[in-house]
Design brief:
It is built from 8 helices and 17 strands.
C-alpha cells in the first residue's frame, strides 16, 4: 500500500483529495501547516476541521508549526513589497517556500514518505521523451490554480499529486456529500488567506506599515487629491481614490521618493510590454531565442498572446521580456506573469517593471520598483 501525505487546510477541496485517495487504497496521512493564529480556514478553524476529517477517515493527522517560516517568507515579503510601491503576489511564493517544500521535507524526514498531495486544481504529466514533469491547467478552467503553482521545481512536481485536477468543483462538492464529509457544504475560502484572516489587505498592512499621507497627482504632476499611504493602492485601481474628475482615473504608478500616487485615464493605463524576474522554467528548458506564448498577468484575467524574449541567453533565463500583441491594462510590478502553451505551463516569474517605453499616447511615469 503506497503511503501519501495530504496537505489539509480544513476546506472541502483538500478533504475530498484525502478522502478520494483513501478510498483508492492509499495509506493516507493528513498534514496541516499552522501558519497563523486566529480565525481563518488555514488556521485555528481549519486545523479543527482537518482533525475532524482525519478522525472520520480513520487516518493519522499531523500539525506542523510553520508560523515562523510564514512570517519570514510571506508576511515580511508582503510588507517590504507594499512599502516600496510594489504589489506582491504571496501565493506562488507560499506554495514553494512555505507549503510544498516544507511538506515534502517533513514527509520524507518524519514520515518516511516521498509523495504528497493537495486539493489544488491543476494537473501534472511527465514527458515521455524528456522525462521532464509538466504542469498543466485543471479540467475545470474556472477553478484552475496552475497560475499559483508556476514556481514549483521539478523535484516538487515529481513528488506531487493533484487528485482534483481532472474534475470540476461541482463534482468535488458531490463527492464530499456522497462520502458524508462534514466539509461538504463549507463555504469557499478567500483566494488570499491573509484577507480571510485580517478582514482586508489594508487592515493587515496597517498593522505593519504606518500610513503616510501624500499627494495624488496626474502624469503632468498636477495635484488632484490626497492619498492615505502608498501601500493602500495598486496599479489599475479606480475605486477609493476620492478624486472628482470628468473621467474615471486609475492608478498607473508611484513615486516612492515623493510619496505620490500617479493616476491617469484608462486609455493611459495600458502597457505594450514588461520585464519579468525570478523566472522558473517549469515544463521546458529555458529558451535561448524568442518564443510565442499565451500569458496571464493576473489570476482572474484571460491569457493573452505575447512574444517572450530571453534577457539572459546562455544562462537560466532568470529575466525575460514579454511583448504583448495588444497593450495590456494594469501591468503590476510584483504580480506573477505565467506563460502557457495551450494548457501547459511553460514558466513564470514576477513582473519587475512595466514598459520602458509607453505605447503612443501612454504615460511616461511607470511603477518600476523592483521586488527584490
Amino acid at each position: 500500500m503506497e503511503r501519501i501525505v495530504v496537505g489539509l487546510s480544513g476546506g472541502v477541496d483538500s478533504s475530498v483529495a484525502a478522502a478520494s485517495l483513501h478510498r483508492q487504497g492509499y495509506d493516507v496521512v493528513g498534514l496541516t501547516l499552522w501558519l497563523m493564529q486566529g480565525k481563518g480556514q488555514c488556521c485555528s478553524e481549519g486545523m479543527v476541521d482537518a482533525a475532524q476529517l482525519c478522525d472520520e477517515l480513520g487516518i493519522p493527522h499531523h500539525i506542523v508549526d510553520s508560523r515562523e517560516v510564514f512570517q519570514r517568507e510571506i508576511v515580511d515579503y508582503l510588507v517590504e513589497g507594499y512599502g516600496s510601491g510594489v504589489t506582491p503576489l504571496p501565493c506562488s511564493q507560499c506554495n514553494r517556500a512555505v507549503k510544498f517544500g516544507p511538506m515534502l521535507q517533513y514527509a520524507k524526514e518524519e514520515l518516511g514518505c516521498d509523495r504528497i498531495a493537495t486539493g489544488h486544481y491543476a494537473r501534472i504529466t511527465q514527458n515521455a521523451d524528456t522525462g521532464r514533469y509538466e504542469l498543466r491547467r485543471a479540467v475545470d478552467l474556472s477553478k484552475d490554480q496552475s497560475y499559483f503553482l508556476y514556481d514549483l521545481t521539478q523535484e516538487l512536481l515529481a513528488a506531487c499529486h493533484f487528485p482534483l485536477g481532472h474534475q470540476t468543483k461541482t463534482e468535488t462538492r458531490r463527492i464530499a456529500a456522497e462520502l458524508g464529509l462534514h466539509t461538504a457544504d463549507k463555504p469557499e475560502s478567500q483566494d488570499l488567506c491573509l484577507i480571510e484572516h485580517h478582514g482586508s489587505m489594508q487592515t493587515f498592512l496597517d498593522k505593519y506599515l504606518a500610513s503616510k499621507p501624500g499627494d495624488i497627482v496626474d502624469t503632468d504632476g498636477r495635484i488632484l487629491g490626497q492619498h492615505t499611504g502608498i501601500h493602500h493602492y495598486t496599479i489599475g485601481q479606480r475605486k477609493g481614490l476620492g478624486i472628482a474628475a470628468p473621467n474615471p482615473l486609475y492608478v498607473v504608478g508611484f513615486d516612492v521618493g515623493r510619496n505620490q500616487v500617479i493616476v491617469a485615464d484608462r486609455s493611459d493605463a495600458h502597457w505594450p510590454d514588461c520585464t519579468v524576474q525570478r523566472v522558473n522554467w517549469v515544463s521546458i528548458d529555458a529558451p535561448q531565442e524568442p518564443i510565442r506564448v499565451s500569458v496571464q498577468i493576473r489570476y482572474r484575467s484571460p491569457a493573452v498572446a505575447a512574444t517572450l524574449v530571453p534577457l539572459e541567453p546562455g544562462q537560466q533565463a532568470g529575466r525575460v521580456k514579454l511583448v504583448f500583441d495588444e497593450p495590456q491594462f494594469g501591468v503590476t510590478p510584483g504580480q506573477a506573469a505565467v506563460w502557457y502553451d495551450h494548457d501547459r505551463v511553460l514558466g513564470g516569474g514576477l513582473i519587475e517593471a512595466a514598459a520602458s517605453e509607453p505605447a503612443p499616447g501612454q504615460v511616461d511615469q511607470l511603477a518600476t520598483a523592483a521586488v527584490d
